[in-house]
Write a structure and sequence with these properties.
- This protein has 12 helices and 11 strands.
- By secondary structure, it is of the alpha/beta class.
- It has one domain.
- Strands 1-5-4-6-7-3-2-8-9-11-10 form an 11-stranded mixed β-sheet, with helices on both faces.
Length: 401
């Protein structure tokens, strides 16, 4: 082959690669339900970027307000107060939780699982932050919860007092994640609505910025009746009979791979799937995934959540959860398990004796659980948390129980 011919072939390949990476269907996108690989790689250099998304995230995350200076008229005094109100608790929880979680993940979780796999996080609320620190290498994140998607007002055109009230409302909506490490649905719904924040979207922006992610794409989407195609929509309807979501395309600063983050507003009880069977069909079509469950009100213990429980057992490669997730007895046949922390009866908010797992308690009493040096979950007052990592028998595992 001549050098001229080789140059032509290489040029054609580069053009086609660049062209395919930049062809975005603005009306719809398809979920690749038949993907067999754990890795989805989209090189960010070939992907267009809208910097306004990062500006919004930086403002809400208490970092950079330069793009919004025309809104401020009092030497940015309220902005400095807001920044401090974000920075102070964030520094505390970084020291108390996130730094320790990173080390625990590196030592205990990543070596035992396929850590680049899609992460499925049911009952999540907008909790991208904990999902990220425990599964930082996941190539895609899917969160599902009953908190509404929400919108972002035109922050560039707001009056100063309105912007101040909005930022204060966003920060107030984070109070439970600061204090307890999880969202309380009733608190968050009340906090956000009372302060004219209509959903979880601004909190997702905060978490993305605080984990040093850049936003390459954002949009609202509706899942169509084929359970595969997503159509872009202008704004959410907040109708649980249809499946709507927020989709982000993100990239960690210093990396060159784009990842997808999707948050679904959906009812994943059995009744919810009866009203919206398309979403159940979509979840069944996903490639095998890792699962993260915490502070989930013990919902998957009940027969009224049998579908989501079955999905976790049937499709998961690994599951990291506290005792509020799928009961221990469902994992016995097909999973290896690794115990951490201390197992105690559920907190007083969940007094049913049915929720105390005697078989899990017996395993903990064998003295094989490794200690935890951070608190993440309902037992935040005592710090006596329990975590179990389940790894499917045929999955990667480098250590024994």
């Amino acid at each position: 082959m001549s050098l001229k011919t080789l140059f032509i072939l290489l040029s054609s390949f580069v053009f086609l690669t660049f062209y395919s990476c930049n062809q975005k269907d603005k009306k719809s996108t398809k979920q690749d339900a038949n993907l067999n690989t754990d890795t989805i790689e989209i090189v960010k250099i070939n992907y267009p970027k809208d910097s306004t998304q990062d500006q919004i995230a930086a403002l809400l995350g208490g970092d950079y307000a330069d793009a919004f200076k025309k809104v401020f008229t009092d030497n940015m005094s309220f902005w400095n107060e807001y920044k401090t109100s974000i920075d102070t608790p964030w520094s505390r929880i970084t020291a108390e939780r996130f730094t320790k979680m990173e080390k625990w993940c590196s030592d205990e979780i990543t070596p035992k699982i396929s850590d680049t796999t899609l992460l499925f996080y049911p009952f999540s609320g907008p909790d991208f932050i904990n999902a990220y620190y425990l599964f930082p290498n996941a190539n895609e994140y899917i969160l599902v919860a009953m908190e509404k998607l929400g919108t972002i007002p035109n922050l560039y055109e707001m009056k100063e007092d309105d912007l101040k009230n909005y930022l204060d409302a966003v920060n107030f909506g984070l109070r439970d994640i600061y204090k307890r490490s999880y969202f309380i649905t009733g608190n968050m719904d009340q906090d956000l609505r009372k302060n004219k924040v209509d959903g979880v979207l601004p909190l997702l922006y905060v978490f993305l910025h605080r984990t040093r992610h850049e936003i390459y794409e954002f949009g609202y989407y509706r899942l169509e009746n084929d359970a595969t195609t997503f159509t872009k929509i202008e704004k959410p309807s907040n109708d649980l009979k249809v499946t709507e979501c927020i989709k982000f395309k993100i990239c960690k600063k210093g990396d060159n791979k784009l990842k997808n983050l999707t948050y679904f507003y959906a009812d994943i009880s059995d009744d919810g799937f009866i009203k919206n069977p398309i979403f159940l069909q979509y979840l069944k079509s996903l490639r095998p995934y890792n699962v993260f469950i915490k502070s989930a009100s013990y919902l998957s213990h009940y027969d009224t959540f049998s579908n989501i429980r079955n999905l976790v057992i049937e499709k998961s490669k690994a599951v990291l959860q506290d005792d509020t997730g799928v009961p221990f007895r469902y994992f016995k046949n097909n999973f290896n398990f690794y115990l951490y922390g201390i197992y105690e009866k559920p907190i007083d908010d969940f007094k049913s004796t049915y929720l105390f797992q005697k078989d899990l308690d017996e395993e903990y009493k064998k003295g094989i659980a490794k200690p935890l040096d951070f608190s993440l979950g309902y037992h935040w007052r005592s710090g006596k948390q329990n975590w179990v990592l389940y790894v499917r028998n045929d999955e990667k595992t480098n250590t024994t129980k």
